[in-house]
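Q: Can I see a sequence and its folded structure?
A: Here is a first one.
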Amino acid sequence: MSSLRLPLSLILLAGLAACGPAVGANSGDGPAQSGIYAYTMPDGTEGSMVLHSNGDYAQMVDNEPLPIEQGTWRRHDGQFCLDDGAGAEACFDEAAVGADGFSLTRPGDSQPLVFTLRAGG
């Protein structure tokens, strides 16, 4: 993986404490639902986040045939959490954006990353 294509959880969530053990399934209600979402990283790299209803996710970037990151997603204590299986689960604040998008923000950070729905799941 090149330094310009860091996994989403590393860029968004570097330095966050773990929220608890992964359960491998979505629990609770929130703006992010299963589907395919587009996003643009702070460095301008565009990609897609695929959220499956079974709690799996995959992060894709254009012109790459395989996910650059994958794991499980869930909600825990009012936060949206990603676990890429590398050891620590990262959780962040989730907010609705428009009718079918959402944003993710590290607690204490003012710069959210916005996800726009491309296709429902």
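Q: Show me another, different protein.
A: A second, unrelated one:
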Amino acid sequence: MVLMAMNPALLNANLPEYETNPNTTEVAAPEHNATPEKVYVMSPQEEQQTRQPLSSHVEPENIVYQRRFKAEGKNWTMYYYNVLKERLPDYVMNIVLIPDDYKKITNSSKHELSIPPTVKKLIYHKTGDSREFEGAWINEIIKDSDGQFYKIEREIKLPDDIANEINSLLSDETQFRPNPNLVKSFTIKSTLDLEPTKKY
């Protein structure tokens, strides 16, 4: 088994969906029978802020954690990102994967169209041998050769150590607290083929 931090619950089912109150969002809650801890409830304005599209280049003051890695023959940086870091310093709202050659994209009016590659789901390629790996399904905005802007969704193959870090985060085995909707689903495939890229 290559990926050692895999949570069995993640392997067997999609991650659960969580309902949110339109007026407030509880971002932390004590475990059952555990010592009560402070619960922070976002104001409607703060909750709206968390739903805004991310800038193409993450703001340093909102970075909770970062780590360099290599994928697709180039260097990337993984960011745990939180626009409310000042109040929730250990909370992770998004996982963003940005390659070194990532460029800001603007339209003719100089309005920024970019969103950084953000992890939406995880795909585990379970083949029963040493070739097994985990991929991240990311979305981003690109400018094609025809000059048009498109949203694409695609899978990238993650290095084992980066996949294990993300799995540990989702399993609540780190010092960080993951957003319950951080990753929408977890899929298992029996092949090594990456998911086909989708273009909108």
